[in-house]
Amino acid sequence: APAAPTDPPGPTDARADDVPAPALDQPDDALDQPDDTVDLPDDTIARLLHALSHPEVREACLALCLTARAAPAERLWARLTRAAPTQVRAHPAALLATCAYLRGEGALAGVAADIALAATPDHRLAQIVRDVMDHGLPPHRFRAMLAESFVTAFTNT
């Protein structure tokens, strides 16, 4: 299996040309906060949720689940899932489900996937995480599949 990427795709990567740079920077900036127990201001939450409306930003955020920044990313997705209105909760909840499952927290992953699917029944990432869990794919195999898909996506552009 290929090695997991060490850094997520960023503003200079392929396919990010159509996304405003501030949207790509929003999640990264939030991860750099030193204390994740501090509440995020409403305007920051709104900007982060808007940033997640861009598929390229979500891809970069998904890649964080495979890096050393997975723990702070997971905490951010949990905070956004709790703070988001139902209609925009699916993206952070699906990212939370992914991070949680990859570290072996199936119960949290299942709850987060269900939250995402309740908000958006056809959410692809949430459906994938739910299917992976329902079929008993071990987290390490799911991690390898995600890593492989990122290698393929960013070397075939």
Q: What does the model show?
A:
There is one protein chain. By secondary structure, the chain is mainly alpha-helical. Helices cover 64% and strands 0% of the residues. The chain contains eight helices and no strands. Helix 5 runs parallel beside helix 7 and helix 6 packs antiparallel against helix 7. The protein starts with 20 loop residues before the first helix and ends with a helix. The relative contact order is 0.14. The N terminus is likely disordered.
Map the helices and strands.
Layout: H1 21-31, H2 42-51, H3 55-64, H4 70-83, H5 90-102, H6 106-119, H7 124-134, H8 139-155
Helix pairs in contact: 1-2, 1-3, 4-5, 5-6, 5-7, 6-7
Condensed summary:
Helices cover 64% and strands 0% of the residues. The chain is mainly alpha-helical.
| CA radius of gyration | 15 Å
Poorly predicted residue ranges: 1-24
Amino- and carboxy-terminal Cα gap: 21 Å
- Give the biggest sheet: none
Molecular shape: globular
Please count the beta strands (DSSP E, at least 2 residues each). Answer: 0
Q: Quick check: average pLDDT?
A: 82
Report the helical percentage. Answer: 55-70%
Would you list the SSEs in sequence order as H and E? HHHHHHHH
Q: How much β-strand is present in the residues?
A: under 5%
* Tally of DSSP helical segments: 8
Structural class: mainly alpha
Characteristic key phrases:
single chain, disordered N terminus, 157 residues, mainly alpha, 8 helices
